[in-house]
Each structure stands twice: as structure tokens, then as C-alpha cells.
Design brief:
With about 300 residues, this protein is α/β, with parallel strands linked by helices. It is built from 11 helices and 13 strands.
């Protein structure tokens, strides 16, 4: 126990968590390549791989590359060692446990967020609903971002699709060739369509603070209840909270990134509580490959207030 405390204290003194935010693209690519190695790699061999990765897009002098390695070592992300083979006189390099725990987790999360497959979990949601086809559906965009991968999926499941977004975004979609949907809108906090209009209402990217409508997310959910038919479905989904690890320092890194993404990440419990606050009682939940969703069914007697 004493040794663990001493190690923790010495590592805390050495490691500056703020330095993580200063990592360059070259640093991140270097760590990503090292994480794929099963054994320590010769310094020059790593340099050759980095050069091959960037090719003609970036000239990397050896001096700059070696200085980057020294900085990564000081930050605790890589370690140097000497080969047992006396013929190899240069340093061997490998990623530390910190890099493995923190960088790999963060990169995995953010790459999945940047190259997000909007269809993750869709079939699982439909399975929970026990229904895979709808006459009329509403998709709500809480920001100007719309993942176009959703349209082919929804066009097969919904006969008449409405999209609630800003008019400028709607025009962009038309110019891109998406035409089999109608534009909905909010006036004075109220969705344009009448009560009991949609069979299903969906917010595929749920935000804590809606960027487009100047209303709270609770008010928005209540509006979805109003325009959804009795026995119809309201679905909200978002990115899951970043996972924690067994490494204190990795968790600090994940916490910082998690705070940056706080507006668009939720726990299952948070989604459930939002639906309950809006008045939905029959709720199913799903957590699947980094996505969380809450599926609420509008009761026959439920109306928004």
C-alpha cells in the first residue's frame, strides 16, 4: 500500500494533465502507431512509419520527430529502453500504460463520434418497440448537424417523414437531393403539426441544450408527446458517457474530454428521467456500442400540458 501511494505521488508530480490538450497531430499519430505494436519498436523504424503515414502531406525532419518523442516521454505517454541485442544501439520505444488506457479509449470514442454510424442501434430500438413500419414520423434535429446516413433507413420504415430543423438546413438537404420528406417547424415554442399526428417522433442526437428552438429539452419532449398519436412512440438517443478505467490518470483525461462533450452525452438514467419529467411513464431503454436510447410509449390518456 505504501509503495502504491509513493508511486501515485511521484507520478502525479511528473504528469501534468493539462499537457494532454497540447498534443499535436504528429503526437497522436505516433501514439496510435505505438499502441498497435506488440513489442517496443526501434526509434528509426517508428520514424519511417510516421513518414509513410504522412507521405507528401507533411515534411517531418528527424530532429523535430525526436524532440516530439522526448516531449511525449516527459508527459508520461512513452518510455525508452535499450535492446538486449548489442547490435541495436538506438533506443527502443513503446507506449506506456497511461497511453494505452487514456489515449486508446479517447481515440476510440472520438473516432466513433466523428465518423458516427447513425444506424447503430436502430434495429435494436425497433425490436424493443415491436414495430418496424410507420405511416407518419417526425425526426427532430437539436442542432444544425444532420447525419445523412439516417435518411435511407428512415425512408424504408416511414411512409411520410417530417423533419424539424432550421429552414437553411432544409434547403441544404434539398440541394443534396433529399426530397422525400416535409419540413416541420416550431412557432412560439410549439411544433406546427396538430395533436396526435405522428406515429413515431425521434430525436436521434439528443442534446442537453437545444441549439435551434429557444426552448428547454423538457418542453421539446412535451411537444413531441402532444403531436404523437396515443399508443405512438417517442425515441431519444445520444452518445453514452465516456467509460472509466482502472487508471486514475486515464480517468482524469477522460473526465476533461467528457466535460467538453457534456452537451451531447447522457446516461441511461438521465434519458429515463427526462422522459418521466415530460410525463411519459412506459419507458424502455437500450445501451449499445456507445449509444444510449430511451423509447417511450404515449399512453392513451396522456396529453402534454
Amino acid at each position: 500500500m505504501v509503495k502504491e501511494k509513493n508511486y501515485l505521488s511521484s507520478t502525479l508530480e511528473k504528469f501534468n494533465i493539462d499537457a494532454f490538450a497540447d498534443l499535436t497531430i504528429l503526437d497522436l499519430i505516433t501514439l496510435e502507431l505505438l499502441l498497435k505494436k506488440q513489442e517496443p519498436i526501434i526509434r528509426y523504424s517508428l520514424y519511417v512509419e510516421i513518414k509513410e503515414f504522412f507521405k507528401e502531406n507533411k515534411d517531418i525532419p528527424t530532429s523535430s520527430f525526436y524532440n516530439n518523442l522526448i516531449n511525449l516521454n516527459k508527459k508520461g505517454f512513452i518510455s525508452f529502453s535499450h535492446s538486449k541485442d548489442k547490435k541495436i544501439k538506438t533506443d527502443l520505444i513503446e507506449a506506456t500504460q497511461l497511453a494505452k488506457d487514456a489515449i486508446k479509449s479517447v481515440n476510440s470514442y472520438f473516432m466513433s463520434a466523428l465518423v458516427h454510424n447513425a444506424n447503430i442501434g436502430n434495429e435494436q430500438v425497433l425490436e424493443l418497440m415491436g414495430q418496424d413500419h410507420f405511416e407518419k414520423g417526425l425526426m427532430v434535429s437539436m442542432s444544425d448537424f444532420l447525419n445523412l446516413d439516417l435518411f435511407p433507413f428512415l425512408s424504408k420504415k416511414v411512409d411520410k417523414l417530417y423533419i424539424l430543423t432550421r429552414k437553411e438546413v432544409y434547403k441544404d438537404l434539398i440541394e443534396l437531393g433529399f426530397q422525400n420528406f416535409e419540413l416541420s417547424k416550431i412557432d412560439d415554442g410549439n411544433i406546427r403539426e396538430p395533436e396526435n399526428f405522428f406515429d413515431v417522433s425521434i430525436i436521434p442526437f439528443y442534446f442537453r441544450n437545444p441549439e435551434n428552438y429557444r426552448i428547454t429539452r423538457t418542453k421539446l419532449l412535451k411537444e413531441l408527446i402532444r403531436v404523437t398519436k396515443p399508443d405512438g412512440w417517442i425515441v431519444i438517443s445520444s452518445r453514452a458517457k465516456l467509460p472509466t478505467t482502472q487508471n486514475y490518470f486515464a480517468n482524469e483525461v477522460l473526465r476533461i474530454y467528457g466535460e467538453a462533450l457534456d452537451n451531447r452525452t447522457f446516461t441511461i438514467n438521465e434519458l429515463q428521467q427526462d422522459m418521466k419529467k415530460a410525463g411519459i411513464k412506459e419507458i424502455k431503454t437500450l445501451e449499445y456500442q456507445g449509444m444510449v436510447a430511451a423509447i417511450g410509449k404515449k399512453s392513451l390518456k396522456l396529453n402534454s400540458k
